[in-house]
Amino acid sequence: MFNNKHKKYISIAIFVLLFVGMIYAVKVYLNRLDCSLRLQSLCSLMLVYHNEYNELPNHERWYDLLICEFALQDDFFKCPSCQKKGKIGTYFINKHLNSKWDGPGDLVFLFEGEFGWNQYGDANDILPLHSGGSHVLFLNGNVEFIKQEDFDKLIWTSSSNKTVDNETTGINIKGQSQ
Ligand SMILES: [Zn+2]
After folding, report:
1. pTM for this prediction
2. 14 vs 158: CA distance, rounded Å
3. pLDDT digits (tens, 9 = 90+) for 39-86
């Protein structure tokens, strides 16, 4: 049915498709890795800010306050998977957090959602910015990829008696109640 010339073209086409698929998979993987590291960096900056001022930045101005404090670029708050240009961010702070870094370690701290500026919100705002889910930074400093079907298992308010487990994360929070 196919002569050698056809087989050669089919082989090249399959190779190109596999190569393009591989490039796409690598790009998706790198975006996820970069996003996770971005949230980890934000955690470290939040910690420095909290230790300096003994409170978290105001939810309504948290991008602006961190930019001012640490001279960050405007796109620091944007997930690498977001193609939108301009002064926007996709990282939200949990609006139920206290001003102090205090609460259960598995409480949602930062998460991903729709683009905007100085984003804050809760379970109504989390979106799967990556295929199948999104990253969440918890109060204990851990960043995890949460599948969309598990969004409803996230903890948004400090109703738990558990405290931040800073021994396992190495987080040193000034003024934290023990
Ligand atoms: Zn992301």
Report:
1. 0.82
2. 53
3. 999 999 999 999 999 999 999 999 999 999 999 998 999 999 988 888
Q: Are 56 and 99 in contact (CB under 8 A)?
A: yes
The Cα-based distances of 126 to 3, 158, 174 in angstroms read 54, 18, 29
CA atoms lying within 13 Å on the CB side of residue 42: 34
Q: Looking at residue 177, what is its pLDDT?
A: 46
- Interval between CA 88 and ligand 1 midpoint (Å): 13
Tell how far the Cα of 78 is from the centroid of ligand 1, in angstroms: 8
Determine the length of the chain.
Answer: 178
Looking up tokens 């930019």 gives 67
**Three-class HEC string of 59-106:** HHHHHHHHHHHHCCCHHHHCCCCCCCCCCCEEEEEECCCCCCCCCCCC
Distance 134 CA to ligand 1 centre (A): 6
Residue 178 alpha carbon to ligand 1 centre in Å: 32
Distance between Cα 9 and ligand 1 center (Å): 38
27 CA from centroid of ligand 1 (Å)? 13
Q: How far is the CA of 89 from the centre of ligand 1 (A)?
A: 11
- Measured in Å, residue 70 CA sits from the centre of ligand 1 at 21
